[in-house]
Amino acid sequence: MPFQQFSFHPKVVAGINALGYTTPTPIQAQAIPKIMAGHDLMGLAQTGTGKTAAFALPILHRLMQGPRKQVRALVIAPTRELAEQINDAMLELGQQTRLKSITVYGGVNVNPQIEKLKNGVEIVVACPGRLLDHINQGTIDLTNLELLVLDEADQMFDMGFLPDIRRILKHLPAQRQTMLFSATMPAEIRGLAREILRDPATVQVDNVAPAATVSHALYPVAQHLKTPLLMQLLKHTDTDSVLIFTRTKHRAKRVGEQLEKAGYTAASLQGNLSQNRRQAAMDGFRNGTYQILVATDIAARGIDVSQVSHVINYDIPDTSEAYIHRIGRTGRAARNGDAFTMVTDEDTLMVKAIERTLGAAIERRTVEGFDYSVPAPRKDDEFARPPRPPRNQPKAKKPQPKPAAGQGAAHAAAGSKPSGSKPAPAGGARHPQRTQRPR
């Protein structure tokens, strides 16, 4: 079943085409018709199965009709990383709709969130704690809410968010369409589903299995050495078509630029590209114009290329299911493929989760001749800019003529300082140099 059969609004179809989506995943094929028909939904699916688009596309379609600048759809997620991922999907799929979507979570300044809410948005993707703060302070209006999604409900339960969820639900209109997605269904989540879902439809997809034709390897490395190591891997590996995954749009762009400077035919695929440039990057990767494509998880979802010889995880994914989804783009059509993952010390827990999913330990490798001892730059970022010179650097003083004979004592007396005064800073600056803000 192609996406055309869902009869989405033309502006939503434009977003689907821009991302290169052609055939829906199993959960999309099952869930989208039920959501479009107005049913509440219970979805049992892991991350990496396409469930974000399964609810994002019907939401965008519905919001094309009706008022603007009102919060009409609310998605609640357990972590800020997932909230950003969902919001990116909303913005990318809805790039032609002019619908506004924002994230709301703690740990960041609340004022920009309040300002965006005042200016009017249609979609809010929120974590429970900060959303409750906005509700209690009266900085968010949910009286016009039509659609509610609870994503990764079992993770929210594990993190102790269920009491917050129940508090939030008391402030939402009773007449709404509700969707609940969970990878597992413990008793507490079943109880919550009974409370909030009205005669729900249920969809379930099996866990994604790793391809037997893919070999796996881990490359331990410090964060600031990832780009040099990537260059060495590409230099010493016989590759055909390479797909590189990064965690952020900024990093995808910068890695793509550095590969181009190194002489590779490379392109990046990330949310800040125009539709034409995005399509050109995907088409170029499919037809071999680009040997390397650097992408984020969301941007790469529409890629279906049978000739990918290597998947390189510049950044490890957030879940083991996402890892399986990434590496599933190589080793297709009975061909062998390789999955390389660069890992730092902070990735230990995720590595163990991936190994549990694979049912085996992953080989650790090093690149012969690569210098792993290079120290990190001042900023712990492999893309750190060199520090700028201080803005208020004092000018060098002009040499003063020596006083005439007999005037030395008078000049010395005039220039003397009171006893106990502190010496001036080196260079004659009157004020300590201000610390430069990180860029």
UniProtKB/TrEMBL annotation:
Q: Which processes are annotated in GO (biological process)? A: response to temperature stimulus; ribosome assembly
Q: Where is the Helicase C-terminal domain?
A: 229-373
Tell me where in this chain the DEAD-box RNA helicase Q domain is found: 1-29
Q: Which residues form the Helicase ATP-binding domain?
A: 32-203
Region spans: Disordered = 372-439
List UniProt keywords, sorted A-Z: ATP-binding, Cytoplasm, Helicase, Hydrolase, Nucleotide-binding
This protein's source sits in the domain of life called Bacteria
Q: Specify whether Disulfide bond is a keyword of the entry.
A: no
Molecular function terms in GO for this entry? ATP binding; hydrolase activity; nucleic acid binding; RNA helicase activity
Keyword Cytoplasm in the entry? The reply is yes
Instruction: Report one GO cellular component.
Output: cytosol
Where is the motif (Q motif)? Answer: 1-29
Instruction: State its Enzyme Commission number(s).
Output: 3.6.4.13
Q: Which PROSITE patterns match?
A: HELICASE_ATP_BIND_1 (PS51192), HELICASE_CTER (PS51194), Q_MOTIF (PS51195)
Pfam families given for it? Answer: DEAD, Helicase_C
Q: Where is the composition biased (Low complexity)?
A: 403-429
* Known catalytic reactions: ATP + H2O = ADP + phosphate + H(+)
Q: Which family does it belong to?
A: Belongs to the DEAD box helicase family.
Return the protein name: DEAD-box ATP-dependent RNA helicase RhpA
Q: Which organism is it from?
A: Trichlorobacter lovleyi (strain ATCC BAA-1151 / DSM 17278 / SZ) (Geobacter lovleyi)
